[in-house]
Each structure stands twice: as structure tokens, then as C-alpha cells.
Amino acid sequence: MGFIEEIKRRRTFGIVSHPDAGKTTLTEKLLLFGGAIRVAGAVKSNKIKKGATSDFMEIERQRGISVATSVMGFEYRNYKINILDTPGHQDFQEDTFRTLTAVDSVIIVIDAAKGVEPQTEKLMNVCRMRKTPVIVFVNKLDRPAQDSFELLDEIEKQLKISTRPLSWPINSGPDFKGVYNIYNRSLRLFDANVQEVEEGIAFDDVNNPDLEKYIGEDADTLREELELVEGVYPEFDVNEYLKGDLAPVFFGSALYNFGVQELLDSFVEIAPFPRPSYTEEREIKPDETTFSGFVFKIHANIDPNHRSRIAFVKICSGKFERNKVYKHIRSGKTVRISSPTAFMASQKEVIDEAYPGDIIGVPDNGNFIIGDTLTEGEEVHFKGLPSFSPELFRFIENADPMKSKQLAKGVDQLMEEGVAQLFTSNFNGRKIIGTVGQLQFEVIQYRLEHEYGAKCRFENLSMHKACWIECDDKKVLDEFKKRKHQKMATDKRGRDVFMADSGFILQMAQDEFKDIKFHFTSEF
Ligand code: G4P
Question: Do 113 and 42 lie in a common domain?
Fold first, then answer.
């Protein structure tokens, strides 16, 4: 197969949802279709979750929260599908945001009873910012659900995106009869006792009285609702979807493997193949012949016996080849990657080549950090991997003086992985950890102890926000730093950070120093 065909058959996407909406269950059902895992029928999601698929880390098993972001690849109908798993827990949203920089499209799972939940909204904001095409899967129709029209209204209003149903549910809960597939005009009947996927029944015209044979007195309601759908929603326009302006909507029940194949079949047809990436210097097209890629995730200590890390590299252009010499732009050094791995569900295997859209795992001893670029020599720097301004802060202290080296190393590596951010106070030199969620402090403490043999203590620090500051006028900047000396810190790259005690103080500072730019992400 040629280079261009390889690119065009790739679909790299992420599944996101509010916790418990069914992301894990849907992921696993998709993996079943790809033959990537072999578990018959509707296995409860947790059974697999606790098994092999995405939980690399002990901490994840302990908490039952998907801390890890892993990559699962499989082949389906001659498409190469890469699913990037994202942690559902909101304390790890920064991890999720970074993963979204490596996907070409997204499937959002929504619980049909609960509708749009806060986390869904936040994730959609990131997709909108990046103009990522989005498909919505309304899940759990086997349970009593909200009215479908109201649900679509809610999605449009809260997620600020137009919708177009491509399937339509016939009732929900105990009366759930199935879905009518508007996209390919077929009827698929639901039977809670049958888990195998059967072919849908071709049903071009719902006015055909045969419809009653299948769904009885619900036929009339379905006809009315479909008429309304056709009246209210414009024809599905795939270009609107690809621009990120329109979300096609599918209904189903991931647990019962119902509606998942429709979703997958439509997905491979309409979802985009790898899109251009942006560097500070220029746009990079996937079909350029020279290789480029960037690190969007670092996963540490997969094997607790070896201090091993894996850097996840998204390939943006050209063909990646094992053992070829590439340039690590940040250090200026050359690297030769001798055992790159690909992730086929639970199995990690060494690969010889990979194409744009693919994610490879690169074994790493601490040379890579998030955002690093690899090329065949061209000096480019990929954009779009910002650190977000943290909102929770604590001083970190060494709790075991004999282990200060281990602590320093552990903190350093965890920060490089993007678990949290480290600031050093200009005033007293104390180290401050900033996070977006409470859980990260526990993760840091746990991992320092278990992976580095170091103990730390946190001391509360009440602070509103850390923001990066810059100013063209050095005098103004110096004046600001002098005046705010007690509240100034530097980040790990030595950049100036203002630690504002409260929203009010931040506002005052912004009003008083109009020439200073206050940034709330590290990329500006
Ligand atoms: P998440 O990754 O988005 O957090 O959700 P996950 O798939 O873990 O699903 C959360 C719960 O919802 C699980 O139940 C799962 O079985 C259930 N679920 C997922 N899809 C459906 C569906 O289509 N219908 C119904 N009725 N339930 C669904 P749990 O009780 O938390 O875990 P488990 O022990 O049953 O696996």
C-alpha cells in the first residue's frame, strides 16, 4: 500500500465523556469489533477495565480511576483505527486536554438520562477551540432516557454545536425497541437477551405498514418523530462536521453492544484522516515525505522494577522508521529509536515503521519532555501543548532528609510527565506544586514513595491563580516584579510567574499594569 493510502486509511480519535457515561464500555465494544480483544457479549466494563486494556499503573487499579492515557490500535474494514484513551476523572483533565492535541476527531459519550454534564462541556470547549470534528453517542437507551428532542436541544445549547441525528431511538428503558438508522435507512431491533450484532433490516420507507410488524404501536410515533427530525434538522453535511460545526448524533447502548457498529461504520466513513499540524514556524501536512512528530504524553514506570518511561509520539508527517536517525529539536541531539512500540489494545509490540496519525511509544530514560519535537533535521516546534494555569497550590517539603536526591529526581520527572507544575518562589526559594485537581497531590505523594522511595509533605497555600507574565518594556516588568516580589515565582523553564492571592488582586494588578500581559496558559 502506498504512503498516501496509508495516511488516508487512518482514523485517530479520542472518546471523551463525563465519568460514568460509558466511555470505557464503548471503547471496549469498539475494540471487540476490531478483534483487538476477545470477550464475548456484554461484559461489564469494569471486568475488562480491571484486566488488561488501559490500566498500566498500580495507582489506577487502586483507585479504579483511569489515570493513564493509553493508545489502542486496531484494524477494521481496511481502516487503521487508533483510539486514544483519556482519563475520565476531572482532576486529570489536563492530561485529557493534551491527548486531544493528538487526535483528529472525537466521539463524545452522553448518558441519555443525565444529558450534558459539566465535564462534557469542558471537553467540548477544547474541541471547539481546536475545531476538532465531533460525533455524539447518546448512551444507555436501555434505561429510561430523556426525550430525544429535548436532549438534542440541550446538546446544542450547552455544547454550542449544531446537531444532526443519524439514528433515532424507539422508546427507551424497558420499552426500548431499537433504533432507526437514518443514515443508511435500516431498522435495528433491540433484544436485551441477544448480544450478538445482527444485520439491520433494510427499511427504506417508514410509511410501509410492515413497520408495525416489527415495532407494533410504536410505529406511528417513530413516523411522526422522523418527520419532525427531517423538518427540523437540515440534511447531514459532512463538510460541516469536518469543520467542527456540526455533530452527527447516534443513539444506543454500549453495555448491550447496541448501536455501536452503526457508530463505527459511519465513523470510519466520515471521520477525518490525519489533518495538518501546526508548528511555530509553519503548517505541516501529513503527506510531506519527511518525518516529524511530537511528544504529547509521557508515561512513567510501567514496570515498577525498572525506572522506565514511555514517551508517546504522534506522527505528524512522513514515514517513521525504526533505527533511523532523527533530530531531537530541543536538545539539538540526534536520536535513534531502536525499539519503538505500537499499542494494539493490551499488547505492546515493536514496530518497524509507522505513518502519520499513528502513535508510537518510545522507551525513554528521561530525555524527552512533553511538547518535544522530532524531525529529520528541520528546526520546527509543534504548537498547542500548553500547560494550564493551575488553581490549587501547596508547598512541597522533604519528609525524609536522607532521600533528598530521590525527591528532587522524582519531582523533576513527575513534572516532566505533566502531572503537575513546579514553581520556585522568588521570595524564599520554596518549591510550590500547582495542580488543577486535588487528586494530583495524592498521586504525587504516592508515586514519589512507590517509584522513587522519597517522602514528601505538603503545606497548604491559599492562592487563586498562577499566571505567566510578559512585557515588552523591561522597566515596567522590573517594576512589577519589584512591587510584587513576595508573589513572584519562576516556572521550570525560568519564566516569570505571578501568584495571585485572589481574583481581586489579580484584577487590580491587571488594571494597574496595563502594559503587562497576563497569560493563563504557558503557551503564548
Ligand atoms: P466511564 O468510562 O465513562 O466512566 O463509564 P463506564 O464505561 O465505566 O460505565 C459506567 C457504568 O455505566 C458502568 O456500570 C457500566 O456498566 C454502565 N454502562 C455503560 N454503558 C451502559 C449502557 O449502555 N447501559 C447501561 N444500563 N449501563 C451502561 P457500573 O455499575 O459502574 O460498573 P460495572 O461494575 O457494572 O461494570
Answer: yes
Q: How long, in residues, is the chain? A: 524
Q: Is the beta carbon of 50 within 6 A of some atom in ligand 1?
A: no
User: Is residue 254 in contact with ligand 1, taking CB distance under 6 Å?
Assistant: yes
pLDDT band for position 423 (cuts 50, 70, 90): very high
What average pLDDT does the segment 481-506 reach? 93
- CA separation for the pair 87, 139 (Å, rounded): 18
Asked whether the beta carbons of 116 and 45 are under 8 A apart, the reply is no
Segment 54-75 shows an average pLDDT of 52
Provide the pLDDT confidence category of residue 359 given band limits of 50, 70 and 90: very high
CATH assignment of the domain containing 417: 3.30.70.3280
Domain boundary among 212, 243, 270: 270
**Mind listing the pLDDT tens digit for each residue in 505-516?**
999 999 999 999
Indicate whether residue 86 lines ligand 1 (CB < 6 A).
Answer: no
Total domains, the chain: 3
What is the mean pLDDT of the segment spanning 70-91?
Answer: 82
Distance of alpha carbon 87 from its chain centroid, rounded?
Answer: 7
First to last CA, the chain: 41
Q: Are residues 416 and 465 in the same domain?
A: yes
Domain range holding 320? 277-375
Determine, yes or no, domain membership for 286: yes
Measured from the Cβ of residue 213, the count of other Cβ atoms closer than 10 Å reads 9
Closest atom, ligand 1, to C-alpha of 252: 23
